[in-house]
Amino acid sequence: MTRSQPWYFLPGPAPWPVIGSTALFLMAGGAAMWFNGVSSGPWTVLAGVLIMVYMMVRWFGQVIDESEGGLYSRRVDLSFRWGMSWFIFSEVMFFAAFFGALFYARVLAVPDLGDLEQKLLWPDFSASWPTAGPIAADPFTPMAAWGIPALNTLLLLSSGVTLTIAHWGLLQDRRGALNLWLLLTILLGATFLGFQMYEYGHAYSELNLKLSSGIYGSTFFMLTGFHGFHVTVGCIMLTTIWIRCLSGHFKPDHHFAFEGVAWYWHFVDVVWLLLFIFVYWI
Amino acid sequence: MRHRMATSASCVLLAGFPGLASAADRWNMQAPASIVAQDIYDLHMLMMGIIVVIFVAVFAVMFYSVFAHRRSKGHQAAQFHENTTVELVWTIVPLIILILMAWPATRTLLLLRDTSNPDITIKVTGYQWKWGYDYLGGEGEGISFVSALATSRDQIQGTVPKGEHYLLEVDNPLVVPLGKKIRILATGSDVIHSWWVPALGIKQDAIPGFVRDTWFRADKEGTFRGQCAELCGKDHGFMPVVVEVVSAEKYSAWVGEQKKMAARADDPNKTWTLADLMARGAKVYAANCMACHQANGQGVRGTFPALDGSKAVSGPKVDQISMVLNGKQGTAMAAFGKQLSDSEIAAVITYTRNSWGNKTGEAIQPAEVRAQRK
Amino acid sequence: MSASIHDTARAGHGGGEDHAHHPSGIMRWVMTTNHKDIGTMYLCFSFAMFLVGGLMAFIIRTELFQPGLQFVAPDFFNQMTTLHGLIMVFGAIMPAFVGFANWQIPMMIGAPDMAFPRMNNWSFWLLPPAALLLVISLFVPGGGPAAGWTMYVPLATQMGPGMDFSIFAVHILGMSSIMGSINIITTILNLRAPGMTMMKLPMFCWTWLITAYLLLAVMPVLAGAVTMILTDRHFGTSFFNAAGGGDPVLYQHIFWFFGHPEVYIIAIPAFGVISQVIPAFSRKPLFGYTAMVYATASIAILSFIVWAHHMYTAGMPVTGQVYFMYATMLIAVPTGVKVFNWVATMWKGSLTFETPMLFAVGFLFMFTMGGFSGLVLSMAAVDVQVHDTYYVVAHFHYVMVAGALFSAFAGVYFWLPKWTGRMYDETLGKWHFWLSMVFFNMTFFVQHFLGLAGMPRRVPDYALQFADFNMISSIGSMGFGVSQVLLPYIVYKAVRHGAKAPQRPWDGADTLEWTHLPAPAPYHSFETPPVVK
Asked: Which residues have CB under 8 Å from B267's CB, separation 6+?
């Protein structure tokens, strides 16, 4: 860049958005076909996912080049901060819908199903949590809180600490510490995911706890499942910035991508705490 | 007292529109036939009165401005643009009006929701697309029947002239005595329906898996008509509610008659001939199955499966009996076990297995159906 | 276009120093990162969807012209009412106001463009695939979704594959709205010109800032709700199935937690447009600016705590009903404040009635009627009688059509000279207003009576006593539909043959786009930010 940094960087025309839209269209249409037994559905979804991955790599690649090329002024940096904050807020609201469903079921729907008036329809149902509802398919054992879930809590909380230590390393320009602690954070996240997968296997094979196990199974798997998906995304994001750190990106005073990912990781962490309390524990 | 005042307020209002008051049913809520409906009617008229006054006042100001403060009349724009006092006034005054409005609104609501001490309790079940009534308590306990649209398909298609109560007539209306408190327990069997009789001031969603209650006490004899008020699929517009309010004596007579009819009901152990089953089945099919599976058994492509040549019909009869009794989860195929008797189910299954291209030659007996009931 | 882009020395282009990066023809629109191009696409898309949704309304009103089933089967009728709702809300009205936001916000706050231009492009280009999915749903076995735009379960669980297409369409529309909102919030908070303090923001920007927060808070919730329908349909969950311990009413709670703020997502930007138009043609500053800002914010906050007034007949405990009734009635206070302030703005002004002002006054009059019928509906006991009847249909069309749509028309006529540099035909514009006004009322005013007298909504056929009003309503709707053909013609005529517009055709308009930018506005609004005193 020979010119002085502009006061606000405006990117030129870009093909990535419309490629992303095409990908989403294929994913959505493909999934709708897949769920209704059309054999080409899964392949359509796969094509969409591949295009989406390509688009993300290229788009983010361009953003990284622009950032390292010094095009992003303080004000652009501030825009990213606002943008990421409000994106995380929208994610909070997405989880709020599922937590809302859980609270509604536990506080209102299930006790209501067990009360006197509903005896007309469900004479034998007594309300208690956990439950699979009045027409319980087969009995299941709920997930205990103090085994793997507690361990997972510990893992995620530690990963928040290691990430903060990595951030200190970045701020003080100690790159070795940065790379090491960031790697450790990723490993902790991956271990969490491994445990989570083991726990799902355990639920299905030994506890007879399934997605179809009534309202308990529904809320349990949807909440933990969406959280697990977010941890996966978080791990991919962490890996991306780790590779960038290894390539010498970021400066002590210019590393929004790192902070954005860190915010996201802490958000995932907080969601887990709520999950641990309301889904596993009480 | 309040009731009187509201009515006179409404009269004043209606007087402004000659001819409206006489045809009130067309321009306004139906003539109330219960205390709750009357209260709602009055509440609505009162609110309308207040609203019309405010509306006229505000827009009188605006239109005065529109006519007086035009540039074409040479009006120069003033430049004032703030006045805290005025803002406070038009925040607080509406607030006070609202609080005054909330008082009668709350009173009516509390009356509407007071379902205590009923004389008669009736369970109303919404089916796609008819209503089931079970008298659970009070005089008539034990009576149970299904009430469906009585208007012919020909009238709907327009091949014959439409009758006076087009779409608002049923085969078996709900019969209740005058002046008795009737508690309605509403539930749905498949999707959400809503049981609604405007003249009685009653509308209650029928939610599958839950029982929700409401009540009415009719203070006029007569026939009151309503409709399902919650979108419930294809024939949502074709499942009316008809309530007949009769005197206590007539009600007792009706109850006696229903009990006698129940006693005369089909003997479930009788063995039927194929021809009898086919004749009976054709009627049951027309009333319950034809709307979806069609008269020719071809269904509607993509929505309602064909029965003609279907494996569900030509396969093992136990599977078909189970399907008709219990329905199919997640589809519009209802569980008919609670709506139809063993004989009716046996007849309609026999009918489907021996109509159109289906030629199994089997006669299903009521006993076989009963054996599969849980 | 090329000349204006070339002069972007200060705003700076990512590698965009030469023309090679600026494709022409269709690719210009596909790849554009310019707020004006994107705004134009939003507005055109919105109008196209308005025609598609209008066609569906035409089918609905044709069937309802007379009692009896004449033209369509009940199942198809239900698909039409469902898709009419979905397409008009998500495809026509919301994108129209996002289009205004794209065009106007950077110009009004003195910014070069939106904060995230590439994401802005994606927000738009997510809409066509979503619309396509909705239309495709009509052609899959079983047809489109027929459970109403509210998609109540268990009816939605019963639907065929078309429902899945609609669910995914809603997901994609949600993503679009979330990205659009983040962009608008960031632009307003971070890209204001020096001296443009928050309390100097034009009212339109304030309303969009508040709307964007509403969108961010509720679109993810809607995504969650439809996801639960999807898993209930295909993966055996029991969120809305009592047999498994769930509750169909849970869906209604989640949906209306989205759905009620959604009403204000549509109405609040409309308030914003009106708040620009009325002062401009009254030649007088907006009365009570501060109160307007607070009133708008209050409406937005209240909109989160009133959702269950859509569910008075679902059988919630009476204490719940009383609470939701009081909270709902409270909304009348800030809404009243807004109406009073608009009237006070006109008071002792120097009024003229060009087309934008006509639509604004029409808005004011009719929106207030919609607000008052809303107040009637807020009374739980009265609502029991009119819930799910044509009274409700009349009520929300007064708010959505005479409210939001009229305000969008006002905005188009108001800003067209700035966008195109040409004046529209005033006579035709006035025809457009008066025809819309007369036919709109013919269509919807009589529906109040239908609802009161007991005609339920979403029915393809009705009893004989409703015949007269339905016929009037159908004739009105045809007239309303045909009148809208005027709009594209007027815009076309203005662009092709219109008189050259001066920089400031409305002498009462005093926001930055009028005072600082020529007509038509340059490709990048403010290459160097203006200083606002």
From this structure: none
The pLDDT of residue A116 is 80
Taking Cα atoms as reference points, which of A137, A115, A135 lies closest to residue A126? A115
> Is residue A4's pLDDT more than 60?
no
Cα separation, B98 vs B109, in Å, equals 16
Question: Mapped to the 3 state alphabet, what secondary structure does C323-357 carry?
Answer: HHHHHHHHCHHHHHHHHHHHHHHHCCCCECCCHHH
B124 shares its domain with B192: yes
| B-chain residue closest to A122, CA distance | B209
Q: Compute how many other C-beta atoms are within 10 angstroms of the C-beta atom of residue C26.
A: 8
Q: Inform me whether the C-beta atom of residue C470 falls under 8 Å from chain B C-beta atoms.
A: no
CA distance, residue A80 to nearest chain C CA (Å): 8
Instruction: Check whether residue B159 and residue B86 sit in a common domain.
Output: no
User: Is residue B228 located within the same domain as residue B295?
Assistant: no
CA distances (Å), B198 to each of B309, C60, C384, C390, C439, in order? 45, 25, 9, 14, 29
Ranges of residues in chain B whose predicted pLDDT is under 50: 1-23
Tokens of C178: 């979330």
| CA pair distance A265, A154, nearest whole angstrom | 15
Q: Return the number of other C-beta atoms located less than 10 Å from residue A173's C-beta.
A: 11
Instruction: Give me the domains of chain A, ranges plus CATH numbers.
Output: 1-72 (1.10.287.70), 74-281 (1.20.120.80)
Contact C152, C248 (CB under 8 A): yes
Closest chain B C-alpha to A7 CA, distance in angstroms? 36
Q: Do C231 and C246 touch, CB atoms closer than 8 A?
A: no
Domain end among B79, B112, B145: B112
User: Does some domain include residue B211?
Assistant: yes
Chain A neighbours (≥3 Cβ pairs under 8 A) are: B, C
Tokens standing for residue C102: 């794209």
Interface residue of A110, A117, A212 to substitute, partner B, most B CBs within 10 Å: A117
Q: Specify the amino acid at residue B121.
A: T
Write the CB contacts of C108 (distance below 8 Å, at least 6 apart in sequence).
C201, C202, C204, C205, C511, C512, C513
What CA–CA distance (Å, rounded) separates C385 from C391? Answer: 10
Structure tokens belonging to residue C138: 């009509």
Q: What is the ipTM of this complex?
A: 0.95
**A268 in reach of chain C (CB within 8 A):** no
Across the range C47-76, mean pLDDT stands at 95
Instruction: Supply the CATH number for residue B40's domain.
Output: 1.10.287
Nearest to C304 by CA among C268, C263, C269, C250: C263
DSSP A109: I
What Rg do the C-alpha atoms of chain C give, in angstroms? Answer: 23
Residue B186: CATH number of its domain: 2.60.40.420
Instruction: State which H helix or E strand residue B144 sits in.
Output: strand B144-147
Q: How far apart are CA B180 and CA B188, in angstroms?
A: 25
Kindly report the CATH number that applies to the domain delimited by C2-7+26-516: 1.20.210.10
Q: Residue C529: name the closest of A207, B65, B101, A6 by CA.
A: A6
Same domain, B142 and B253: yes
- Positions of C annotated as catalytic residues are 84, 113, 149, 176-177, 260, 262, 264, 275, 309-310, 335, 338, 457
For residue A112, list chain B residues with Cβ-Cβ distance below 8 A: 210
Q: Domain of B319?
A: 274-372
Neighbour tally for A176: CB within 10 Å: 8
Please report the sign of the dihedral spanned by the C-alpha atoms of residue A191, residue A192, residue A197, residue A200: positive
Structure token digits, residue B140: 């008539």
Q: What is the mean pLDDT of residues A105-126?
A: 89
Q: C-chain residues within 8 Å CB-CB of B164?
A: 464
Segment A236-253, tens digit of pLDDT: 999 999 999 999 999 999
